Fold:
Amino acid sequence: MTTIASSRQGTKQGISRTTVLVVIASETAFFGTLLMSYLYLRTGQMDWPFAHPALPRLIFPGINTLILIGSTAVAWSAQSASRRGDRQELKFRLSLSLVLGLVFIAGQVFEFTRNGMRPDDLAFGGVFFALMGFHVLHVLAGELLNGMSVYRTDQGELDEGLRASVEAGVWFWTYVAVVWIVLFAALYVV
Structure:
């Protein structure tokens, strides 16, 4: 009986990992297409409508980037707590990661309101806002995944199914952070 239960849990983890990897692969194609569209438009226009921000204007998005990276580090430490079976630490670290994710979203909304662009600003504005908007939606999806793990932990769960969910959420959250680093470099730095 123990072997069967262990096999089922291994199957759940395998399915969870495979699902996350398929989602990440498809989302990479999606973001890659949008980013290539942005770069194509940017290099194809002699009179680019928006200059990259000066260094002082990069401070806020840079801090926001560090917040998201910090949130990812906290999420990874939550995964370690999950593996150790420490429910309280898992709940605390996932909750902290969620709060930092919300701070990142608030920073993005603030950045949208002060950047001076609108979605209808030629093709550039549309692609820029599609990249930024879809990234925020992915951050919200990561918040939902990790929030569900916090809820399950709060309900007293800490089994292999929850560990698989935590791992999937952390992988997705890491993906969201990596995508943001690429977007930050492409939209603000390069």
